[in-house]
Amino acid sequence: MIRSDIVRLYKTVHTWTGISCGFALFIAFYAGALTMFKEPIARWASPPAVGVAAVPLDDAPRLLELVAAAHPQAREEGIKLHLRGHENEPARVTWEEDAPHEEGQPHDHVHWWATLKPDGTLLAQPEEPSELADFINEIHMSVGIPQAAGLPLMGLVSLLYGVALIAGVIVLLPTLVKDFFALRVGKNLKRMWLDAHNVVGITALPFHLVMAITAIALCWKGELWSAQEVAIFGDRQAILMDRDNGPFEVPKPTGEAAAMMAPAQLLRKLEEQVPDLQPSFLVFKNYGDTAAAVRVPGAERGHVGDTHLGGVMLSAVTGDVLKDGALPSRQDPDRRAAETLYGLHTGQYEGLTIKWAYFFLGLAGAWLFYTGNLLWIETRRKKARDGGAVEQSRSTRLLGSATVGVCLGCVAGLSLSIVAAKWLHGRVADLNHWHAVVYYVVFLGSIAWAFARGAARSAVHLLCLSAAATMAIPLTTLTALLFPALGMWAHGSAATLGVDVVAFMGALCFAWMAVATLRRTRHGPADSVWSIRKPGQASALSTPVPADA
Amino acid sequence: MAGEIRPDWWGKTSAGAILGLGLALSLTGLYAYLGPGGIDAPGGRYSLMRFLEAFVWITVFGFCFLFRSGRAAWAWLGAANLIAFAALFACRFHFFA
Amino acid sequence: MIVSLALALTVLGCANIYLASPHQKWRARPLPRTPLRAAGSLLLVAGLAAWVAALRPMVGFFVALHVVMVCLFVFPYAAAFRSVGRGH
Q1: pTM for the full model?
Q2: What's the CA gap between A34 and A502, in Å, rounded?
Q3: Mind listing the pLDDT tens digit for each residue in C34-87?
Q4: How many domains does chain C have?
Q5: Residues in chain B whose beta carbon is closer than 8 A to a beta carbon of chain A?
């Protein structure tokens, strides 16, 4: 049996590590749960476009030829040929070019798309795609702090999160078997929040351990690389890395022209040679050259890993595999293990089942940190005795306000940022910048509101705001459908409708929580930061009803 | 570990954070030299090592509060660091003499 | 097809494990525990086998693991929400 002084000690460790990183972890997990559907969200947010279907795959060679001739930089950097026909693929081919560069400014890119006009001539246009999904991912990675500071901070948060997990399990050990699955709803609020906290923590423990470990490795990628260089490799790491990057290097162009294999035939050759690779898109480098190559990223059946960089490289002339070192089944065991861990962080394997599982695990993670904070407050609640009035301590009041403001501000901010994709499209110059503006205004405003009005009142307000903001996602699509003059759009694909349906369900959940919280502020125990009744009123009212939110 | 455990928050936390990282780097470094294929093994070992370091660091940091005192944590983990780093540097000299 | 079967087996297996717990709140009168546990374990093993058959060992194992984790916290919460709904 584990000693009680060890449990006491680790309870303190768990409390302080948990409370110091709970806010950042809530944001990371909530935004992270949304990134599981970054593809559908990107499709939802993309305005109607020419689309992939405008140029059948059999006509693609002509389009590629015209683009390569008219845009030498695209030919060199790579022309992306889309295959799936999703709404976020504006046309059959897209590419990036360097933006005019000013001294001292960061390098920027201009995104282009191209299609064939009915008369067979080229139509190429620069147009910035929606970066909404990337913005949500950025919030997930660095909680909205600029990445230079945000990533190292999240590395520290992840380290403390790992310590909190170990400490939490040690604290739970004595009652682990006895209380497994227990979720006792009732008058004892501390018991209830403790059960609610433990049950999501312990059942999802493997998920959380993997997240803590991988998040440290990902956030402190550069720092750990440097530390390895100094302590372990002694300046030899760069050589190893160069060797390891071989699979991504493109053959040098020869300058001689050659006939290119048609994309449809390339895909058939790929299917013959690497049947397990499911290509996401094709990238043509040096189109028209004898050394032209096609990069084919994609997931390989049966492997957990990165689907963005992996895959194979084919010769664009013969369709033969040039390089397959980045293919999961050809990787060395170390690279394979590292990519498996990376894949376990991002949930990039299988398909829909794992995305939904990660979505719920992510939301449950956010809920874990939210209940952790509630538990801290509930544990420190000063109970009124014999109807006497008590004042709750300053720290519990402040933590209550901060919990409500940060968590619900993040929820409402992300929802409104998504909504802005349709309402602000074509009405502002730089929509991608406005996604951030909307998020920060709502997020910081919510925090200010929570401190101004106190936890109890602001929780109801901000839950209503979250419900309304999330409901605005399907309502926007409905508005677009009913009033086409507004210039918005409503895609009909299952993935984009899924975004609307999930947002609708989410909004109902937030609305239900708002009602339950309102009930608690009125009828819950008055000697709590969650009550709007004055402490003295407690005895004047009828017997308090237990809170149940 | 009999007897009363002292909290010694600063001593143990600093030991877990600093010596935990040291142990993570040195043990992972030993894997890099002595693991299959050795230090010149082709492929993504340097990439996997980041995950191994994170794992060792969290484990040492998480369990270091079990030491009887901050001084004990520094002594034991310091000794472990010394041994592991000595072995690591021996490997470095042996393989890159 | 086999994915749906694997999902069903895994969810049912977790449901059996939950019902075998002394803290289960789905049934007023608990069912005998040992047969439930045995059935739950068998279903989970069959589910894992189906996942592996559908998605190969590596992916199959991790998908099964994550589905199990979701089920194990969703079931107690579902029961708690039901009891709250009845209480008011």
Answers
A1: 0.94
A2: 11
A3: 999 999 999 999 999 999 999 999 999 999 999 999 999 999 999 998 887 776
A4: 1
A5: 4-5, 7, 16-17, 21, 25-26, 28-29, 32, 35-37, 39-51, 53-55, 57-59, 61-63, 65-66, 88, 92, 96
